[in-house]
Amino acid sequence: MFWVLLLLLAWATAGTACTRLCLAAVRAAAVEADPVRAHDLTLYEAAFLSGGPRRVADLTLVSMARQRRLLLAHTGWATVVDPRGRDDIERSVIGAIGPEGQSPLAPVRATAAATDAVRGVADRLVSAGLAVPDGARAGVAAGVRQVRLAVVAVVALGATALLTPAQSDMPRHLVALWFGLPLALTLSCLAIARIEVHPYSRWASPAGQRLLGALTRRARGNDRTDLTSVAVHGIRAIGDPDLRAAFAHGEQQHWRA
After folding, report:
1. Which of 142, 210, 193 lies closest to 29 in space, CA to CA?
2. Which of 144, 133, 145, 126 minimizes the C-alpha distance to 197?
3. Crossing angle, helix 225-233 and helix 53-66, to 10 degrees?
4. How far apart are CA 1 and CA 148, in angstroms?
5. CA-CA distance, 25 to 117, in Å (whole number)?
6. What's the mean per-residue pLDDT of the chain?
7. pLDDT number for residue 236
8. How far from the centroid of its chain's Cα atoms is residue 63's Cα?
9. Residue 48, pLDDT score
10. Are strands 77-80 and 102-104 parallel, antiparallel or unpaired?
11. CA distance 158 to 178
């Protein structure tokens, strides 16, 4: 009855993985447990909900470059023109460039994204129910990965049981059917997770996504449209070819490093 031991192992693997994913999904859904108060998103907040800390740093760099307070050269270097930041995030970007006032763009983006000022934006959004907490976001992703691995494990255990020389009168098609049950459980769990957890982006909760949509609609036709596009869509939405070249060159430097 060696196949029975393999079946028990398949059930244990499938059950553990599915339970972990369900618990993680419940914790993520708790973001929506409390009603979200009326909230007008700033561009920094929109950037975080759309692309996380890195997007906030990119938006700040683009905004300061547009105001000629920061020079982003097409060679991928950032140079401070006006050392007086107008808010904590701008001061964080200036600090990330360093005391010499000039630095390659790639490390500036990474350093600025990890500052306390950007983390403060994240904390406010989580408190307002607009962003998914780090733990919930990581838990769902890890849970999905574990269920996917469980699918592979169940298939492998079933194949091993079928390839093992018969040790009982149980027909092989019935053995396969028994292993089909934990396989069906894991596949169903993945399908349900895709439907139930899909409304959550990597950063924004469903409420945050609704506010992002409203911000984009309000921004059409006014002078903030371009920066709003950068906040929501990232550096690919930059209209200025020189700025695009600066970020593209900075990415190339990052990968070569």
Report:
1. 193
2. 144
3. 150
4. 27
5. 29
6. 84
7. 86
8. 23
9. 95
10. antiparallel
11. 9
Name the H helices within 164-224.
172-197, 206-219
Reference 201, options 209, 189, 191, 193; nearest CA is 209
Tokens, residue 257: 């490093």
Neighbours of 213 (CB within 10 A): 11
State the Cα–Cα distance between residues 152 and 36, nearest whole angstrom.
40
Token output for 230: 């950068």
pLDDT grade for 225, boundaries at 50, 70 and 90: low
The pTM assigned to this predicted structure is 0.69
Distance CA 72, CA 60 (A): 12
Nearest to 21 by CA among 151, 210, 179, 125: 151
Q: What is the pLDDT of residues 82-131, one digit of tens each?
A: 999 999 999 999 999 999 999 999 999 999 999 999 999 999 998 888 88
Task: Give the pLDDT confidence of 20-55 residue by residue, as tens digits.
Answer: 888 877 776 665 545 455 578 899 999 999 999 999
Q: Can you tell me the mean pLDDT for 193-206?
A: 69
Q: Which amino acid is at 150?
A: A
- 25, 33, 59, 88, 207 from 36: Cα distances, Å: 19, 9, 25, 26, 7
